[in-house]
Design a protein that fits this description.
Length: about 400
């Protein structure tokens, strides 16, 4: 069960600001103020002390700060905040997805050792040189003594993390888990991004648009609080949503191009539906992975047509990466949070900047009401990682 969420993105900090920006149809894409010659959906300079206080902030890099802030928001919203004077709850943990992790910290530390010599590296920076360090920092900061796992599965990392956490709860190996993803924008991450996907020169990510010219990279952190129904009931919490099913397929085609036939993405969707015990006709809306990628968007459209057939024209879709960018490890979590908000409002948010056109896909530049308790969330990467998640509105 989903009982709370925490999110910090280029659209704003906090679930309310994130939601309002989505439904206002705003896009955070703009020329970067931190990185040269880059169009991106970046978070404006922020002071982590506003959320985390002064203690222990100096050792946190940008990615760790973002994840720790989202963790703080989620814990406060769920009523699971730990007393820092206590040892912490061994049944409360964190599972997060990322593509690059703290790659800037890793490169900076290694470069210092190569240029200045190993005797001159800063030992305080060494703990940030592993990809799981942000999750470790967040756990230390918030006394999360339970499972602490970092999942790396390309652009599908955030959805994989949610599934991983849900399975831990089903196996009885945790009482509650924060689950989602994070990513920071830095020169090294952008270089890696450009190796696999041309960045939009127009600074207008237009998912599924015939004139799309690529995505813009984004950043941030998004987490759900997942717990069992019994745990939520014991704490007097009413669940928002239920995680129903998950599917994943690896269909590697090229390190720099999607397989536009869409077989892997379609199979991942079908797996998620089967595991949920429902058919495609019961899906009320779809939150798409489309980011403005020429081949990636085409692949997802074909995969959706394979699964939904003629009914696809009647299913409301949203491609929220037009608003918060391709946030890589955080994208799956952001899309899942978007789906949860849509189910609660019974209305799919607009796709920012969408131009009305003849299409088999039911996209809109306005919020669209829908019926049904189930939502489908997709995450697809050109490395062949395809994942889909089915969630439904909680109802006793």
């Amino acid at each position: 069960m989903v009982t709370a969420a925490g999110v910090i993105s280029a659209l704003g900090a906090g679930l309310e600001r994130f939601s309002c920006a989505l439904y206002d149809g705003r896009s955070a894409a703009a020329p970067s103020t931190r990185l040269p010659d880059l169009n991106a959906a970046e978070i404006a300079e922020f002071d982590p002390r506003e959320w985390l206080g002064n203690k222990g902030i100096r050792v946190l890099d940008r990615g760790a700060s973002l994840l720790a802030i989202a963790s703080r928001m989620a814990l406060c919203a769920s009523g699971l905040t730990q007393d820092l004077a206590d040892a912490g709850d061994p049944q409360l943990g964190l599972v997060c997805g990322t593509v690059f992790g703290s790659v800037h910290s890793i490169v900076s530390f290694d470069w210092s050792g190569l240029t200045d010599g190993p005797n001159y590296v800063n030992p305080m920076e060494f703990p940030n040189t592993v990809i799981s360090s942000p999750a470790g920092h967040a756990a230390i900061k918030h006394k999360l003594r339970g499972v602490n796992t970092t999942v790396c599965a390309g652009l599908a990392s955030g959805l994989h993390a949610i599934h991983y956490a849900a399975e831990f709860l089903r196996f009885g190996r945790a009482r509650a888990l924060l689950a989602g993803g994070f990513e920071e924008l830095c020169e090294e991450a952008v270089l890696g991004f450009r190796k696999s996907e041309p960045i939009s020169e127009s600074c207008r990510p237009r998912p599924f648009d015939p004139e799309r010219d690529g995505p813009v990279p984004g950043e941030g952190a998004g987490l759900w609080v997942l717990e069992t129904e019994d745990s939520a009931r014991q704490r007097g919490r009413v669940p928002w949503l239920e995680v129903c099913g998950f599917g994943c397929v690896q269909s590697a085609y090229s390190s720099q191009e999607f397989d536009v036939h869409g077989y892997g993405a379609a199979e991942a969707i079908q797996q998620a539906l089967i595991h949920s015990g429902i058919g495609p006709e019961q899906i009320g809306c779809v939150i798409c992975s489309a980011s403005g990628s020429r081949s990636g968007d085409e692949m997802e459209a074909i995969a959706l047509e394979r699964v939904f057939g003629p009914r696809l024209a009647d299913v409301p879709l949203c491609a929220p990466k037009a608003a918060f960018g391709e946030a890589m490890g955080a994208s799956g979590a952001f899309c899942a949070i978007t789906a949860g908000i849509a189910l609660q409002r019974k209305m799919v948010p607009p796709t920012a900047g969408y131009l009305v056109q003849e299409s088999a896909l039911r996209l809109s530049n306005k919020a669209v009401p829908f019926s049904g308790r189930y939502a489908l969330v997709n995450a697809c990467g050109c490395d062949g990682n395809n994942a889909s998640l089915v969630i439904r509105l909680w109802k006793n």
